[in-house]
Every structure is written in structure tokens, then in C-alpha cells.
Amino acid sequence: MECHVYYEGDDDPKKCTARRLEQFDEAILYRRMEQVPYGIVLNPHAEQALSPADLEDGLGTLVALDCSWESAEAASFRMNGVHRALPFLVAANPVNYGRPFQLTTVEALAGALSILGEPERAAEILEPFRWGETFLTLNEEPLRRYRDCADSTDIVAVQDDYLADDGDDHDEGDERSDHSG
User: What ranges does the record list as Acidic residues composition bias (predicted)?
Assistant: First the structure.
């Protein structure tokens, strides 16, 4: 599955995971929204959760937005495509380690790839990051459970079950990952 990123360029270039993905030929960056190809847009404001059923539409393209947390409002995600929100996942990046839904762009893409049945590709795009393997380890159980779901309804049920089981261990929030960083 191809990874594409709409890059706003408003965060620290040294910490930008999207730029590093581009450097390692793991994603294509676009600086103008109209250039971004149609695909599955990872959008924390979407009303439907990403699930393996999204592959039935024949979409082989994942699209993420790379921007700072301050500018990650709903209007930032006006890209054409099928908009889907990621379910509960915990960040492993040094800035937001252990925080639910506070994912970098590479973590969002890796989580999506894993949910869509491409865990090897998820590991591959995380390889250039020293904390990349930690993301997969921290989220191993929910990613496995999400991957086994049929559709977004099942994903939400698994997420709710996971949060109920681990609610004491995680800071539950109503936010979704904004793919920042």
C-alpha cells in the first residue's frame, strides 16, 4: 500500500517523521492539497473508524496530514478521499510517549497499515526511527485485535472493550490521532 502525506511544513523539520519517510522513500510528500491522490485519508475527525473493510473499495493509497498539533483542526483534513479515524493506539514517539491518540505521522501510517493487514510494511516504515519498534510493541494487542475485525463497527467494539479492560492504565480521551509530526 502506498503512503502519501500532505505536508504543511509547520513543525520542527528535525523532528518531522513525514520528511524522514520521504528521505527513506517510504512516503511521497505533497505541499499542495490538490496534488494529494485520492485514497483512505487518516482523519481524526472522521465519523467512521478505519477497518479491513476499507480495502474492499480497492483503494491502495493511504493519506496522512503532517502538521503541528495547533493546526490539526477538522478544516485541515479537506482532502478528497474516504476519511477514516484510527482507533485507540498509544504513541511511542519521545514527545508523546504513552499518550493515547497522540501519534506522529509515521505512527498513524504504521497503525493503519497494520490494521489493513500489512504489519510487515508497518514495521518497515518504522525502521528508521529508534522508537519505531516500541510503537508496535506497545500496541501489539490492539493492532492484532483490530486487524481481525470485519468492519468499523467491530473496530469500535474492540476499542471499547480494550479501553474497558485497560482503562486504569491509559489516559482516556475523546481525541483521535491527528497524525502530527
Answer: 162-175
Q: Report the C-alpha gap between 8 and 178 in whole angstroms.
A: 13
pLDDT value at position 170?
Answer: 44
86 has binding-site annotation = yes
Query: Cα–Cα–Cα angle for 86, 88, 94, nearest 5°?
Result: 95
Residue 73 lies in a domain: yes
- pLDDT grade for 154, boundaries at 50, 70 and 90: very high
Residue 27 has pLDDT above 80, yes or no: yes
Tell whether the model's pLDDT for residue 143 goes beyond 80: yes
121: cell is 510494511
To the question of pTM greater than 0.90 for the whole model, the response is no
As to burial, measured by CB atoms within 10 angstroms (0-12 exposed, 13-18 middle, 19+ buried), residue 14 is exposed
Q: How many domains does the chain have?
A: 1
What three-state secondary structure class fits 34? helix
User: Is 65 annotated as belonging to a binding site?
Assistant: yes
Q: Which range of residues forms the domain containing residue 118?
A: 2-166
